[in-house]
Structures are given as C-alpha cells and as structure tokens.
Write a structure and sequence with these properties.
Blueprint: H1 3-8, E1 17-22, E2 28-31, H2 32-36, E3 41-49, E4 53-61, H3 64-70, E5 87-92, E6 97-101, H4 102-105, E7 115-117, E8 119-120, E9 123-124, E10 131-133, E11 147-153
Parallel strand pairs: 1-11
Antiparallel strand pairs: 1-2, 3-4, 4-8, 5-6, 5-11, 7-10, 8-9
C-alpha cells in the first residue's frame, strides 16, 4: 500500500470499474463515482507489516455490506439464517484475492466495518479503483488494492445430486 498507488489514482485514463457478480438479483458495475454517491465512512487503520513495521492510513468509502445489500443477494427467506452460508470473494487487478463471510459484515452478526475505500490518505482512487479495507485486521493481509471483482456465493447447487 504505497503512496505511489494512491498517486496512480489521479493518472489519466478511464475510471476503474468493480463488477458485482454471483448470487445477486441485481449484479452491477460500479465506478468510484458510484461509490462516492453512497454514505461515506472513515477508518483510521494501523496495519502491522512484518517487513516494514506499522503503517498508518486513513480510508473513506461506503461499507461493503451496504454496497452488496443494494445488489440483493439471493438469500432464501424459507431457510433460517440462510445469509450465514454466503461467502464474498474480493479480487484485485493484481490477482490478489481475499475471502470474507457474509456473517462477518452483517450488522446482525459480526458487524465488521469493512470498507470499499474510495480515498487513501485523502487521495482519490477513481482511476485505480477502490480498496478493500478491514480496519479490524491487525495486519493488512486481506487489504485488496484496485478491486475489480466482488463475487457473492451462496453455494446453491445447480442440480440436486443423485446417489
């Protein structure tokens, strides 16, 4: 997470897009501008890196839970606590990927304030794309820069297995 990455956010070129896909009623393609139109939250983080020590950053952006909820995950209302079996895979343009559970970000369960950050230390990220920020993590291993795809997966089988 270097300052050069934040500076790249202002480079000329088309705005980055994030594809929301998977078990969603309303899959979407969002730009940083779309994310800026949502309620913004701020997170002051201190990630402890094994090689470079503690790094302090300030991120702003919408909550991941709110962004994904607007895309209507395919929770089955007939199944008690169905949302607890959903996984969220977040992929960055550099190939880095992190996996979260829906329960981790759901306000009724873990309530983790996970952000899709649109600024890093006051620098807009509109050209490189948002960053996944888990302020509660001690180290930044699940931090994803230049998020390009978020997949929500409920593990619904396409056909019932026969024995």
């Amino acid at each position: 997470m270097s300052q050069s990455l934040a500076a790249a956010g202002t480079a000329p070129g088309p705005p980055a897009e994030v594809v929301l896909t998977g078990d969603l009623a309303r899959p979407a393609r969002l730009t940083v501008s779309d994310l800026l139109a949502r309620p913004q939250h701020t997170a002051q983080v201190a990630f402890e890196c094994a090689t470079s020590g503690i790094r302090h950053h300030c991120f702003t952006g919408p909550l991941l839970h709110d962004v994904l909820s607007d895309s209507a995950p395919a929770f089955d209302p007939a199944r008690r606590k169905d949302r607890l079996r959903f996984l969220i895979s977040v992929h960055g343009a550099d190939g880095h990927r992190a996996l979260l559970s829906w329960a981790e970000i759901d306000p009724d369960f873990g309530r983790a304030p996970v952000l899709l950050a649109v600024t890093l230390d006051g620098t807009p990220l509109d050209r490189v794309g948002p960053q996944l920020v888990l302020p509660q993590d001690r180290c930044g291993g699940r931090h994803i820069s230049a998020v390009d795809t978020i997949r929500v997966d409920g593990g619904y089988p396409t056909a019932r297995a026969t024995r």
